[in-house]
Amino acid sequence: MKSELFSRNVPGSLEVLQRATVAVAGCGGLGSNAAVALVRSGVGRLILADFDRVAKSNLNRQHYFLEDVGKTKVTALAAHLRRINPGVNLTLHPVKLTPANIHQFFAAADILIEAFDRGESKIWLVESWSRQYPDRPVIVGSGLSGIGHTGELRVEKSGRIFVCGDQKNGEERGLSAARVGLVAHMQANTALALLINPEGESI
Amino acid sequence: MILVNNRDRVEYMPGMTVRDLLEQLGYTYTLITVTVNDTLVPREEYDEFTIQDGARVGVFHLAHGG
Protein backbone atom coordinates (compact mmCIF):
# COMPACT_ATOMS: atom_id res chain seq x y z
CA MET A 1 0.00 0.00 0.00
CA LYS A 2 2.82 2.33 0.93
CA SER A 3 4.46 2.13 -2.46
CA GLU A 4 1.19 3.16 -4.13
CA LEU A 5 0.54 5.92 -1.57
CA PHE A 6 3.81 7.61 -2.47
CA SER A 7 4.06 6.51 -6.09
CA ARG A 8 3.68 10.09 -7.36
CA ASN A 9 6.32 11.50 -4.96
CA VAL A 10 9.35 13.42 -6.08
CA PRO A 11 11.81 10.70 -7.19
CA GLY A 12 14.40 9.88 -4.57
CA SER A 13 12.72 11.90 -1.82
CA LEU A 14 10.85 9.18 0.03
CA GLU A 15 13.82 7.31 1.49
CA VAL A 16 15.12 10.51 3.09
CA LEU A 17 11.73 11.75 4.27
CA GLN A 18 10.72 8.43 5.84
CA ARG A 19 13.70 8.65 8.17
CA ALA A 20 13.00 12.27 9.13
CA THR A 21 11.44 13.67 12.29
CA VAL A 22 9.71 17.06 12.14
CA ALA A 23 8.38 18.84 15.23
CA VAL A 24 5.32 21.07 14.87
CA ALA A 25 4.88 23.64 17.64
CA GLY A 26 1.22 24.67 17.56
CA CYS A 27 -1.48 22.82 15.61
CA GLY A 28 -3.66 25.71 14.45
CA GLY A 29 -3.90 27.19 10.98
CA LEU A 30 -0.20 26.85 10.22
CA GLY A 31 0.63 23.66 12.12
CA SER A 32 -2.36 21.53 11.14
CA ASN A 33 -2.07 22.31 7.43
CA ALA A 34 1.72 21.94 7.41
CA ALA A 35 1.43 18.57 9.17
CA VAL A 36 -1.01 17.26 6.55
CA ALA A 37 1.37 18.28 3.75
CA LEU A 38 4.34 16.67 5.49
CA VAL A 39 2.54 13.35 6.00
CA ARG A 40 1.25 13.30 2.42
CA SER A 41 4.83 13.94 1.29
CA GLY A 42 6.12 10.92 3.18
CA VAL A 43 7.74 12.34 6.32
CA GLY A 44 8.07 9.35 8.63
CA ARG A 45 7.68 10.91 12.04
CA LEU A 46 5.99 14.03 13.42
CA ILE A 47 6.06 15.40 16.96
CA LEU A 48 2.91 17.48 17.49
CA ALA A 49 2.48 19.90 20.40
CA ASP A 50 -0.55 22.07 21.25
CA PHE A 51 -2.41 22.54 24.53
CA ASP A 52 -5.59 23.83 22.84
CA ARG A 53 -8.88 22.18 21.90
CA VAL A 54 -10.69 22.50 18.58
CA ALA A 55 -13.29 25.30 18.47
CA LYS A 56 -15.88 25.90 15.78
CA SER A 57 -14.20 29.20 14.89
CA ASN A 58 -11.06 27.25 13.90
CA LEU A 59 -12.76 25.50 11.02
CA ASN A 60 -12.46 28.43 8.58
CA ARG A 61 -8.73 27.71 8.19
CA GLN A 62 -7.50 24.81 10.31
CA HIS A 63 -7.53 21.14 9.26
CA TYR A 64 -10.36 20.02 11.53
CA PHE A 65 -13.98 19.02 11.12
CA LEU A 66 -17.21 19.71 13.01
CA GLU A 67 -16.98 16.42 14.86
CA ASP A 68 -13.57 17.44 16.23
CA VAL A 69 -14.94 20.42 18.20
CA GLY A 70 -13.99 19.97 21.87
CA LYS A 71 -11.20 17.45 21.23
CA THR A 72 -7.57 18.32 21.87
CA LYS A 73 -6.03 19.48 18.61
CA VAL A 74 -3.17 16.98 18.72
CA THR A 75 -5.60 14.08 19.15
CA ALA A 76 -7.92 15.23 16.38
CA LEU A 77 -5.05 16.00 14.01
CA ALA A 78 -3.37 12.65 14.68
CA ALA A 79 -6.57 10.84 13.67
CA HIS A 80 -6.70 12.75 10.37
CA LEU A 81 -3.01 12.15 9.64
CA ARG A 82 -3.41 8.40 10.26
CA ARG A 83 -6.30 8.32 7.81
CA ILE A 84 -3.81 9.53 5.18
CA ASN A 85 -0.93 7.24 6.20
CA PRO A 86 -1.65 4.66 8.94
CA GLY A 87 2.07 3.97 9.12
CA VAL A 88 3.13 7.48 10.13
CA ASN A 89 4.87 7.67 13.50
CA LEU A 90 3.24 10.39 15.62
CA THR A 91 4.22 11.65 19.06
CA LEU A 92 1.55 13.82 20.70
CA HIS A 93 2.06 16.42 23.39
CA PRO A 94 -1.16 18.16 24.54
CA VAL A 95 0.90 20.60 26.63
CA LYS A 96 1.75 24.27 26.84
CA LEU A 97 5.28 24.71 25.53
CA THR A 98 7.75 26.93 27.39
CA PRO A 99 11.42 27.81 26.90
CA ALA A 100 12.17 25.35 29.71
CA ASN A 101 10.37 22.32 28.30
CA ILE A 102 10.94 22.32 24.54
CA HIS A 103 14.02 20.11 24.92
CA GLN A 104 11.91 17.54 26.76
CA PHE A 105 9.49 17.27 23.83
CA PHE A 106 11.50 18.15 20.72
CA ALA A 107 14.96 16.66 21.32
CA ALA A 108 14.46 14.03 18.60
CA ALA A 109 13.40 16.50 15.89
CA ASP A 110 15.56 17.24 12.85
CA ILE A 111 13.58 20.39 12.05
CA LEU A 112 11.09 22.58 13.92
CA ILE A 113 8.01 24.16 12.34
CA GLU A 114 7.04 27.19 14.43
CA ALA A 115 3.25 27.51 14.22
CA PHE A 116 2.31 29.55 17.28
CA ASP A 117 -0.29 32.29 17.21
CA ARG A 118 1.38 35.09 19.17
CA GLY A 119 4.46 36.94 17.98
CA GLU A 120 5.97 37.01 21.48
CA SER A 121 5.77 33.22 21.61
CA LYS A 122 7.36 32.90 18.16
CA ILE A 123 10.31 34.96 19.39
CA TRP A 124 11.04 32.91 22.50
CA LEU A 125 10.63 29.67 20.57
CA VAL A 126 13.11 30.73 17.88
CA GLU A 127 15.56 32.00 20.52
CA SER A 128 15.31 28.85 22.65
CA TRP A 129 15.56 26.50 19.69
CA SER A 130 18.50 28.36 18.15
CA ARG A 131 20.36 28.35 21.46
CA GLN A 132 19.79 24.63 22.11
CA TYR A 133 20.06 23.37 18.53
CA PRO A 134 22.08 25.90 16.53
CA ASP A 135 22.56 23.45 13.64
CA ARG A 136 18.91 22.43 13.28
CA PRO A 137 16.56 24.54 11.15
CA VAL A 138 13.55 26.37 12.56
CA ILE A 139 10.89 27.43 10.06
CA VAL A 140 8.77 30.33 11.24
CA GLY A 141 5.40 31.51 9.94
CA SER A 142 5.01 35.29 10.04
CA GLY A 143 2.40 37.39 8.27
CA LEU A 144 -0.51 35.43 6.80
CA SER A 145 -3.67 37.44 7.39
CA GLY A 146 -6.11 38.80 4.83
CA ILE A 147 -6.87 37.76 1.26
CA GLY A 148 -4.83 38.24 -1.91
CA HIS A 149 -1.32 39.78 -2.02
CA THR A 150 0.07 36.36 -2.89
CA GLY A 151 3.23 37.86 -4.34
CA GLU A 152 4.16 39.44 -1.00
CA LEU A 153 4.60 36.00 0.58
CA ARG A 154 8.23 34.89 0.62
CA VAL A 155 10.86 32.86 2.46
CA GLU A 156 13.73 34.78 4.07
CA LYS A 157 16.64 32.99 5.71
CA SER A 158 19.56 33.65 7.97
CA GLY A 159 21.66 30.71 9.05
CA ARG A 160 19.27 28.01 10.23
CA ILE A 161 16.29 30.37 10.66
CA PHE A 162 13.73 30.48 7.84
CA VAL A 163 10.79 32.92 7.91
CA CYS A 164 7.75 32.28 5.68
CA GLY A 165 5.05 34.89 5.06
CA ASP A 166 4.81 38.62 4.41
CA GLN A 167 6.07 39.59 7.91
CA LYS A 168 3.27 42.14 8.24
CA ASN A 169 0.89 42.80 11.10
CA GLY A 170 -2.68 42.33 10.07
CA GLU A 171 -4.86 40.85 12.76
CA GLU A 172 -7.57 43.35 11.84
CA ARG A 173 -7.64 41.92 8.30
CA GLY A 174 -8.90 38.57 9.55
CA LEU A 175 -7.80 35.12 8.42
CA SER A 176 -8.69 33.06 5.34
CA ALA A 177 -7.99 29.40 4.71
CA ALA A 178 -6.33 30.16 1.38
CA ARG A 179 -3.67 32.58 2.60
CA VAL A 180 -3.03 30.78 5.92
CA GLY A 181 -2.73 27.57 3.93
CA LEU A 182 -0.24 29.15 1.54
CA VAL A 183 2.08 30.09 4.40
CA ALA A 184 1.61 26.70 6.09
CA HIS A 185 2.57 25.01 2.83
CA MET A 186 5.54 27.33 2.37
CA GLN A 187 6.73 26.12 5.76
CA ALA A 188 6.15 22.47 4.84
CA ASN A 189 7.81 22.94 1.45
CA THR A 190 10.83 24.57 3.09
CA ALA A 191 11.08 21.71 5.60
CA LEU A 192 10.96 19.11 2.81
CA ALA A 193 13.61 20.96 0.81
CA LEU A 194 15.91 21.14 3.84
CA LEU A 195 15.44 17.47 4.67
CA ILE A 196 16.37 16.50 1.13
CA ASN A 197 19.16 19.06 0.81
CA PRO A 198 20.34 20.28 4.25
CA GLU A 199 22.46 23.04 2.73
CA GLY A 200 19.25 24.79 1.79
CA GLU A 201 20.17 25.65 -1.77
CA SER A 202 16.76 24.65 -3.07
CA ILE A 203 14.39 26.27 -0.59
CA MET B 1 29.49 48.55 5.49
CA ILE B 2 26.77 46.37 7.03
CA LEU B 3 24.42 44.37 4.84
CA VAL B 4 20.86 44.03 6.16
CA ASN B 5 18.53 41.29 4.88
CA ASN B 6 20.71 40.91 1.77
CA ARG B 7 19.20 44.19 0.53
CA ASP B 8 19.99 47.31 2.51
CA ARG B 9 23.47 48.70 3.06
CA VAL B 10 24.16 50.66 6.25
CA GLU B 11 27.37 52.55 6.92
CA TYR B 12 29.46 50.99 9.68
CA MET B 13 30.22 53.05 12.78
CA PRO B 14 32.70 51.82 15.43
CA GLY B 15 30.93 50.54 18.53
CA MET B 16 27.60 50.23 16.78
CA THR B 17 25.20 47.95 18.69
CA VAL B 18 22.22 46.00 17.44
CA ARG B 19 20.01 48.61 19.12
CA ASP B 20 21.81 51.45 17.28
CA LEU B 21 21.33 49.68 13.96
CA LEU B 22 17.63 49.04 14.56
CA GLU B 23 17.13 52.71 15.43
CA GLN B 24 19.01 53.81 12.35
CA LEU B 25 16.89 51.52 10.19
CA GLY B 26 13.77 52.98 11.77
CA TYR B 27 12.36 49.65 12.94
CA THR B 28 9.36 50.37 15.09
CA TYR B 29 8.08 46.81 15.41
CA THR B 30 8.62 45.24 18.82
CA LEU B 31 8.16 41.69 17.54
CA ILE B 32 11.46 41.23 15.77
CA THR B 33 14.29 38.75 15.87
CA VAL B 34 17.81 39.61 14.78
CA THR B 35 20.74 37.59 13.47
CA VAL B 36 24.32 38.76 12.99
CA ASN B 37 26.40 36.66 10.60
CA ASP B 38 23.68 34.00 10.70
CA THR B 39 23.69 33.69 14.51
CA LEU B 40 20.67 34.79 16.51
CA VAL B 41 21.18 37.65 18.98
CA PRO B 42 18.88 37.31 22.03
CA ARG B 43 16.84 40.47 22.56
CA GLU B 44 18.32 41.09 26.02
CA GLU B 45 21.70 41.59 24.30
CA TYR B 46 20.61 44.24 21.77
CA ASP B 47 22.07 47.10 23.85
CA GLU B 48 25.51 45.50 24.26
CA PHE B 49 26.02 43.37 21.16
CA THR B 50 28.38 45.26 18.86
CA ILE B 51 28.31 44.72 15.12
CA GLN B 52 31.57 44.42 13.20
CA ASP B 53 32.28 46.08 9.88
CA GLY B 54 31.23 43.84 7.00
CA ALA B 55 28.66 41.96 9.08
CA ARG B 56 25.55 40.48 7.52
CA VAL B 57 22.50 41.24 9.62
CA GLY B 58 19.04 39.70 9.40
CA VAL B 59 16.04 41.50 10.87
CA PHE B 60 12.80 39.53 10.81
CA HIS B 61 9.37 40.67 11.94
CA LEU B 62 7.50 37.86 13.69
CA ALA B 63 3.91 38.98 13.31
CA HIS B 64 0.96 37.52 15.20
CA GLY B 65 -1.06 34.81 13.55
CA GLY B 66 -0.83 31.07 13.22
Structural key phrases:
heterodimer; A: 203 residues; alpha/beta; Rossmann fold; seven-stranded mixed β-sheet; 7 helices; 16% strand; B: 66 residues; alpha+beta; Ubiquitin-like (UB roll); five-stranded mixed β-sheet; 30% strand; globular
Task: Tell me the overall shape of chain A.
Answer: globular
Instruction: Give the helix/strand class of chain A.
Output: alpha/beta
User: What structural class should be given to the helix and strand makeup of chain B?
Assistant: alpha+beta
Instruction: Please state the average pLDDT score of chain A.
Output: 96
Can you characterise this structure?
The complex is a heterodimer of chains A (about 200) and B (about 70). Chain A is α/β, with parallel strands linked by helices and about 200 residues long. Chain A has a 7-stranded mixed beta sheet, with helices on both faces. The model of chain A has no long low-confidence stretch (mean pLDDT about 95). Chain A is built from 7 helices and 7 strands; from the N terminus they run H-H-E-H-E-H-E-H-E-H-E-E-E-H. In chain A, strand 4, helix 6 (about 120-130) and strand 5 (about 140) form a beta-alpha-beta unit. Chain A has a single domain, classed as Rossmann fold, CATH 3.40.50.720. Chain B has about 70 residues and is of the alpha+beta class. Chain B has a single domain, classed as Beta-grasp domain (Ubiquitin-like (UB roll)), CATH 3.10.20. In chain B, about 10% of the residues lie in helices and about 30% in strands. Chain B contains 1 helix and 5 strands; from the N terminus they run E-E-H-E-E-E. In chain B, strands 2-1-5-3-4 form a 5-stranded mixed beta sheet, with helices on one face. The chains are: A alpha/beta (about 200), B alpha+beta (about 70).
